[in-house]
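Bug #77: duplicate submission created two jobs. Keeping one. Sequence:
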Amino acid sequence: MVTTSFLCLLAYLVGSIPSGYLLVRATCRLDVRDYGSHNVGAINVVRVGGLWLGLVTLLADIGKALGIVLLAAAVTASVWTVASSAFLVMVGHAYSAWFFVQERRFSEGKSAACALGVLVGLVILGALPWWAVVVPVAVWVTGLLGPRLLTGRWSCISPATMAATVSIPLAVWAAHPATAYFSLSVGMAVLILLRHPNNIRRLLAGTEPRLGDRLSPGATADAPSPNP
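Kept job's structure:
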């Protein structure tokens, strides 16, 4: 019980580390949330700080989820504890304690990169086959490349992310994993989708940034919106 509680708390706190926000603040002296999609994830970091900073953010967000999954599996044999820890690292990213302590509010974080880290961790543990990771990644890539090939323009990334999110529990279900991990996959999908209402509103308004948009310092794609 103590081990489970410790792992779950640690997972939430590690997930709460806002990698993209801290990297942009340190290197560009800017708040990434004032730009583009107002998100703290890798794609918005690319828009503000460039490709390499976005890649570092992506690896950091994947890595914190992957590390928690592997750590939990190393110290407990309970698949439910591993699944709970994996879910809470994503909750931490989506509802960061760091921002709440600093600002008394949460900030926009989708946890999509953390979800990839969780899936890779489960593959490494042998709980899922590799294709359970490949399927959502392929859906995401198709959602981006399809509009590019058809229209010559990059699409907004949020529709591709939401489509890939829906495919996660379907792919995991097809792999027939432990009940804990299928339940985790459903929870992951619900959490990510619940973090997209602002993106949906911007899509309907036609103000959602497209992949490849680069925002110059001091300019925003649209006016900053309140963070939930």
